[in-house]
Amino acid sequence: MSIFLLEAFNWTNLLQPQFYVENGGLWLLLFVVFAETGLFVGFFLPGDSLLFVAGIYAHEITRKTGEVIPGLAHQFLDTIGLGMIRNEWVDLLVLSALIACMGILGNMVGYWTGRKVGPAMYQWRDRLLFKKKYLHQAREFYEKHGGLAVIGARFLPLIRT
Predict the structure, then answer these.
(1) What digits encode the pLDDT tens for the residues 68-85?
(2) Quick one: which of 20, 131, 149, 160 could link to 145 by a disulfide (CB 3.0–4.6 Å)?
(3) Could you read off the pLDDT of 52-65 as tens digits, one per residue?
(4) Mean pLDDT of the chain
(5) What is the dihedral of CA 69, 70, 75, 77, to 10 degrees?
(6) Which sign does the torsion angle of CA 141, 143, 144, 146 carry?
(7) What burial class does residue 156 get, using C-beta atoms within 10 Å of its C-beta: 0-12 exposed, 13-18 middle, 19+ buried?
């Protein structure tokens, strides 16, 4: 099986959301949601498009071989001993709740990291990707627009990026 994965792997697969769902399942999906919101390195992951694919695969997954297996939410329900529940609405609600929890947890980790590292950044010297000028501009922006900017950025991905 691992030899087959190595032969079939191509780096461009990492840009395809269905690759994460078919090969990593629910746990990789939840990690991507967490990393996108909570870890600095998560910005390149396909979070928004991955959510659409997760919704498609919430109830059942059809593999390339034609095999149909239970979907992403069923993987979690089976883990906690509720695998006998087979309803597409329950699957969608469970998946939505898990994704929301991981997004909130990721936001909390991102906030904590910013709270710990943020003040020290004012002592850093300018580098290729870091300029104090940008740090001051961001601070002024958030002081001016406050929480609306943070909440609004969540729903406007073009501005957020």
Answers:
(1) 777 777 777 787 877 777
(2) 149
(3) 777 777 777 666 67
(4) 78
(5) -150
(6) positive
(7) exposed
